[in-house]
Amino acid sequence: MDKTPPAVTPISIDAIEAARKRIAATIVRTPLIKLQTGARGPEIYLKLENLQPINSFKLRGAANAVACLEAAQRSVGVWTISAGNAGQGVAYAARQAGIPCTVVTIETAPETKVERMRALGAHLVTASFDACWEAMERRTFPGVEGTFVHPFDDDDFIAGNATMGLEIVEDLPEVRTVIAAIGGGGLVTGVASGVRARKPHVRVFGAEPETAAPGAVSFSTGKASPFPQWQATFVDGAGGKSVFPRMWERMRPVVDGSIVVSLEETKRAMRLLAEKARVIAEGAGALSVAAALRCSEDAGPVVAVVSGGNIELAKFCELIGAL
User: Fold this and answer.
1) What is the mean pLDDT of each run of 10 residues along the chain (323 residues)?
2) Which residue ranges does the chain devote to CATH 3.40.50.1100?
3) For the residues of 164-227, what is the DSSP string, one character each?
4) Fewer Cβ close by (within 10 Å): the C or N end of the chain?
5) With the C-alpha atoms ordered 127, 287, 234, 164, is the resulting torsion angle positive or negative?
6) Do 103 and 85 meet the contact criterion of CB atoms below 8 Å apart?
7) Residue-level pLDDT at 142
8) Residue 135 belongs to what H/E stretch?
């Protein structure tokens, strides 16, 4: 039976502050460092979420969502759907809570993420991208039991992500633009909610690869839209086949648009991060930097959220070595 989610409502500052207290002992308050590009353009700062214990921002939302569950919900265990990072976040939080976790894993998930989910104690069920995408809408998957933790369309998950926005404006009060990747939309919605709770006039943009940019189409058409030309690439942690209508409701009031970048720009951003900041970012984590490099000088200071660093080192070297 399909499960009906609650109505979409804005993420309040009270919910974000409560999430910050709730997850403080689990997550890292990640640093904000200036990227020395050596070229003209806006000042760019990096919010290094790749330094979280699971090397991804997803721990913020997962830790808050699991912590908010009632005892009866915890008693049956939790499950989620993921290409790797959300699965690690929920598995990490579930292990801390002493409850079982199942992850319905997209079959194209990189082996490094699969291994990390297993190491955290998650039971994995592999499925196709389309089956996983449909299950995220239905909130059910055949044969999987327990309490579902949605990897992006969940108030508690988004409130956890939003704690990052508070940190950004506290560490860089003069920030003018913030950019974060769009996958399901929970990251950019959360960051925007946190930033704008304190600095309403800061502009917030999503970043997507040219091969998977339903967010850009949705902002262009003014409605939640599919992306029929979707292709699987090394940017596995962002870019879906469509924007869910509920996530469009969440994004539209707080996000200004989406910046689409090429795969080559993403690879160059990965290399730049490694060379200039000694940061290893996965494809999705470098999208924001690629987008920031496109911004005009007066857009700065720009904060680019480096959302994750879970990439096989051999693959990373292959991608940046070919430039």
Assistant:
1) 78 98 97 90 96 97 97 96 93 96 92 93 94 92 95 96 98 98 96 98 98 97 96 90 96 98 98 97 98 93 97 95 82
2) 13-57+155-321, 59-148
3) HHHHHHHH-TT--EEEEE-SSSHHHHHHHHHHHHH-TT-EEEEEEETTS-HHHHHHHHTS--B-
4) N
5) negative
6) no
7) 94
8) helix 129-138
CATH code assigned to 13-57+155-321: 3.40.50.1100
Question: Is-contact 69 148, C-beta < 8 A?
Answer: no
Q: Which of 177, 162, 231, 228 is nearest to 207 (CA)?
A: 177
CA distance 286 to 180: 9
C-alpha–C-alpha distance, residues 294 and 261, integer Å: 9
Q: What is the pLDDT of residue 162?
A: 98
Q: Report pTM.
A: 0.95
Residues contacting residue 167 through CB under 8 Å, at least 6 positions apart: 29, 30, 32, 47, 194
Q: What is the token pair recorded at 17?
A: 């502050």
| Placement of tokens 């579930």 in the chain | 94
Quote the pLDDT of residue 147.
Answer: 96
**Of 35, 32, 288, nearest to 166 (Cα)?**
32
Pairing of β 32-35 and β 257-261: unpaired
C-alpha angle with apex 213: 207 to 218, nearest 5 degrees? Answer: 100
21: β partners: none
Q: Which helix (H) or strand (E) holds 58?
A: helix 58-67
Residue 308's pLDDT is 97
**Domain boundaries 59-148, CATH class:** alpha beta
The two beta strands, 302-306 and 177-181, are parallel
- Alpha carbons within 13 angstroms on the beta-carbon side of residue 302 total 27
Cβ-based burial of 250 (10 A; exposed 0-12, middle 13-18, buried ≥19):
buried
